[in-house]
Amino acid sequence: MSVRVKICGVTRPEDARAAWDAGADALGLNFYPRSPRYVEPAPAAALAKTRPALGAVVGVFVNETPVTILARVRECGLTAVQLHGDEPPEACTGYGVPIIKALRVRGEEDVERARTYVGVGDVAALLLDGAAPGYGGGGVTFDWSLVARLTDAGVSVLVAGGLTPGNVAEAVRATRPYGVDVASGVESRPGIKDVDAVRTFIRAAKAL
Ligand SMILES: O=C(O)c1ccccc1NCC(=O)[C@H](O)[C@H](O)COP(=O)(O)O
């Protein structure tokens, strides 16, 4: 099976439709108010409605309250939740949908920390991101050779951080992940997707 692709930080219906048409498996809607990709709940619900039968709509949260996360899941029809902040393992449950726990990777110790989330609560996959300043969407890669420590153990890993149409094929070759995720690498400016870049990215990711 080819690698799954999540296009993250979509803010416009036309970008959502273009991503699905290009073969995206999931879209990420960002509910972190400090992100340039932040979407309010009502437009997020409209974006989620573009979802095809087998597509996933993932809500991205950073250190958000459970009450707000649950509200967004219900009002926006989210099919998964991505916890992209400092949430501990015990916070990774309770939303009635699978959870993707994101962790920034600087070195081996972060991969070991990632292991503490495996099999916990509703964690269905880990997203490994680069360690840019801030919480995500920073366009910074990490040492992909570290991913094998998790995938060899059967963990579903989404590789993220600094992926572009130009390097995603190499990332997939190097890590054999469950999926890949991109935000800034397919944008003309933050929150605005470059449709040609989205298409090229998905084609390159799924070519192997
Ligand atoms: O994209 C953001 O602005 C963002 C802000 C805060 C937390 C998470 C955020 N994005 C989540 C993602 O899944 C990104 O796709 C991931 O960090 C990779 O981003 P990029 O390096 O720009 O492809």
TrEMBL record:
Presence of the UniProt keyword Isomerase in the record: yes
Any GO molecular function: phosphoribosylanthranilate isomerase activity
Alphabetical UniProt keywords: Amino-acid biosynthesis, Aromatic amino acid biosynthesis, Isomerase, Tryptophan biosynthesis
Pathway: Amino-acid biosynthesis; L-tryptophan biosynthesis; L-tryptophan from chorismate: step 3/5
Catalysis: reaction(s): N-(5-phospho-beta-D-ribosyl)anthranilate = 1-(2-carboxyphenylamino)-1-deoxy-D-ribulose 5-phosphate
InterPro entries: Aldolase_TIM (IPR013785), PRAI_dom (IPR001240), RibuloseP-bd_barrel (IPR011060), TrpF_fam (IPR044643)
Any single Pfam family the record assigns to this protein: PRAI
Residues covered by the N-(5'phosphoribosyl) anthranilate isomerase (PRAI) domain: 5-203
PANTHER family linked to this entry: N-(5'-PHOSPHORIBOSYL)ANTHRANILATE ISOMERASE (PTHR42894:SF1)
Protein's UniProt name: N-(5'-phosphoribosyl)anthranilate isomerase
Species of provenance: Stigmatella erecta
The organism's taxonomic lineage, starting at the top: Bacteria, Pseudomonadati, Myxococcota, Myxococcia, Myxococcales
